[in-house]
Design goal:
mainly beta, seven-stranded mixed β-sheet, four-stranded antiparallel β-sheet, globular
């Protein structure tokens, strides 16, 4: 069983920055792909970014060029640096772990991820 815990959410002004952290338990963290998703009020949860165990990175078009995902395997932690924030980035942000290895084209699908955190709120004011 893997536990995933997000932190770093909060309130930011439009144009500002926040950095989210996601700590995962387990000695095989370096084998997992890690993803970030978000869910705004009244909307479905959507893909934000993913980093594979080998460092392959994907972004949703809506955050490309503004958000940066990274991982520190020594700390069992993945980060999401969010710059140039917009009010439409307001959502609960979730971190998730994908314990299956290998290249996949379905990386943006919620069903690809086995373990989820409880989420952290990000609010961007205009």
């Amino acid at each position: 069983q893997v536990q995933v815990v997000e932190s770093g959410g909060g309130l930011a002004q439009a144009g500002g920055s926040l950095r989210l952290s996601c700590a995962a338990s387990g000695r095989t963290f370096n084998r997992y792909a890690m993803g970030w998703f978000r869910q705004a009020p009244g909307k479905e949860r959507e893909f934000v970014s993913r980093i594979s165990s080998g460092g392959r990175i994907y972004y949703a078009d809506s955050v490309k060029g503004r958000f940066t995902i990274s991982r520190d395997n020594a700390k069992n932690t993945v980060y999401l640096q969010m710059n140039s924030l917009k009010p439409e980035d307001t959502a609960v942000y979730y971190c998730a772990a994908d314990s299956t290895s290998g290249y996949k084209t379905t990386y943006s699908s919620l069903s690809e991820y086995d373990y989820w955190g409880q989420g952290t709120q990000v609010t961007v004011s205009s």
